[in-house]
Amino acid sequence: MFGIWAPGEDVAKLTYFGLYALQHRGQESAGIAASDGRRLLVYKDMGLVSQVFDERSLSGLVGHIAVGHCRYSTTGGSTWENAQPTLGGHSGFTVALAHNGNLINSAELRELVMERADAGFDVHAGELRRGNTTDTALVTALLVDDPSRSIEERALELLPRLRGAFSFVFMDEHTLYAARDPQGIRPLVLGRVERGWVVASETAALDIVGASLIREVEPGELIAIDEDGLRSSKWAIPEPKGCVFEYVYLARPDTTIRGRVVHEARVQMGRTLAREHPVEADLVIPTPESGTPAAIGYAQESGIPYGQGLVKNAYVGRTFISPNQTIRQLGIRLKLNPLKDVIHGKRLVVVDDSIVRGNTQRALVRMLREAGAAEVHVRISSPPVRWPCFYGIDFATRAELIATGIGVDDVCRSIGADSLGYISEAGMVAATNQQPDQLCSACFTGTYPIPLPSEDKLGKGLLEMQLPMDLRPLD
Fold it and tell me: Bound how, and how many: what does the cofactor note say (predicted)?
């Protein structure tokens, strides 16, 4: 997610490069909206950023403000209708909105849309009518439902009604906005370019466009940027609960979150893992690329040589965030191939960031044994994932999580390893340099910082199953 306000710059191309730096956060669809102060245009499609955009499509997105998004679906299916930025508005203004996170009160927001429509407000739910089944479309509809109120006024009224994890970057014809939930679960940063301002999901996106980091957007803050400069409104008391899984896996290693470089945190996790779960072995290898920093740390701390035992196909996306299970399982074999001469006859320590469903590790251990590894010891730089995430990671149901209801030895047998060791929760948290009470570790502990509604009001397909009849797609 990326936004820029910069008169005199080619904001569409800068947004394109910013999204390129954030491609790891979503690979299903991509989109960019731009405004020249008179009209706002959106171009989006299914696919990677490099597949969706070319010189021709970018040249049509002219102006001084732009918002971009690359999608990883957590609410609503992976369809063109659900691509972002979402669009809404009326004769007074248009809004394009990009969202990173996941709302847990979508059912309540859907009812609010209907109530506002019944009360005579101009809900103008165009995205919903076209079949958009995301929480983002609901927020967009509610932002533009009252032509008598400015977007900023309506946002300050609406944001306190939202529950869950959300970092928003949105715009109208004249102003760029950014907002973050009171817990700050998903990252969002503010940067400066020579002629303006940039907001992005990660600092790595600032680096690629030559922007300097100013600060993080604070939890419970709304920022507005226009020709009068930058102004900030605090609409909620901050209660920081940043996602610890950003440090473990999601964020780029060259990103900084709350003053901690992610690569350094992951190396430290590897060092801690080596102290907590030592083993006699000949070689430490990572599961590339996500396990590489922790593997380096494990090798440094243990004194066991570090090596590259697996070759990664750079043109295969992250298997974890592929939109269905069939593609995940196929992607594992396409993605990694063992270097037989390196691993043959060796006792291996294989370091990875997490075990979620177990498919990757099971296939990996099998490949390494087939390639001649004498022993395979798996080390994981996060604790067992036993609970689903409702704040922006598609862990799905507990039944799909391999560690649910079974112990470490059972998981070890399931994946076929000689031994298995997970880092402790305390060791993982300490590596982030953050206070434990300011991190969300719900996927490991089952303790959710934002109370969840009943199960019938949760789920990726909630809005697809329960969309009101009069907001179903028009024939």
Answer: Binds 1 [4Fe-4S] cluster per subunit.
Domain co-membership, 223 together with 270: no
- 357: containing domain: 262-437
Task: Say yes or no to pLDDT of 466 above 60.
Answer: no
Q: Is residue 197 part of a domain?
A: yes
Does 412 belong to an annotated binding site?
A: no
Statement to judge: residues 222 and 136 lie in one domain: yes
Give the CATH number, domain containing residue 60: 3.60.20.10
Q: Per residue, what are the HEC states of the chain?
A: CEEEECCCCCHHHHHHHHHHHCHHHCCCEEEEEEECCCCEEEEEEECCHHHHCCHHHHHCCCCCEEEEEEECCCCCCCCHHHCCCEEEECCCCEEEEEEEEEECCHHHHHHHHHHHHHCCCCCCCHHHHCCCCCHHHHHHHHHCCCCCCCHHHHHHHHHHHCCEEEEEEEECCCCEEEEECCCCCCCCEEEEECCEEEEECCHHHHHHCCCEEEEECCCCEEEEEECCEEEEEECCCCCCCEEHHHHHHHCCCCCEECCEEHHHHHHHHHHHHHHHCCCCCCEEEECCCCCHHHHHHHHHHHCCCECCCEEECCCCCCHHHCCCHHHHHHHHHHHEEECHHHHCCCEEEEEECCCCCCHHHHHHHHHHHHCCCCEEEEEECCCCCCCCCCCCCCCCCHHHCCCCCCCHHHHHHHHCCCEEEECCHHHHHHHHCCCHHHEECHHHHCCCCCCCCCHHHCCCCHHHHHCCHHHCCCC
What does the pLDDT average to over 354-383?
A: 94
Band of residue 69 on the pLDDT scale cut at 50, 70, 90: very high
Summary mean pLDDT of the chain: 90
Average pLDDT over residues 365-375: 96
Tell me the mean pLDDT in the region 439-453: 95
Summarize the confidence of residues 264-275 as an average pLDDT: 98
Whether residue 36 is annotated as binding a ligand: the answer is no
Residues 35 and 169 grouped into a single domain: yes
The verdict on 286 and 224 lying in the same domain is no
pLDDT at 326 over 70: no
* 353 is known to lie in a ligand binding site: yes
Please tell me the total count of domains within the chain: 2
Mean pLDDT of the 291-315 span: 93
Q: Which CATH number belongs to the domain containing residue 278 in this structure?
A: 3.40.50.2020
Give the model's pLDDT for residue 125: 52
Give the pLDDT score at 123: 60
The confidence band for 365, taking pLDDT boundaries of 50, 70 and 90, is: very high
Q: Residue 255 falls within a domain, yes or no?
A: no
My answer on whether 197 and 297 are in the same domain is: no
More confident residue, 131 or 326: 131
Is 248 part of any domain?
Answer: no
Same domain, 276 and 212: no
Residue 31 lies in a domain: yes
pTM: 0.91
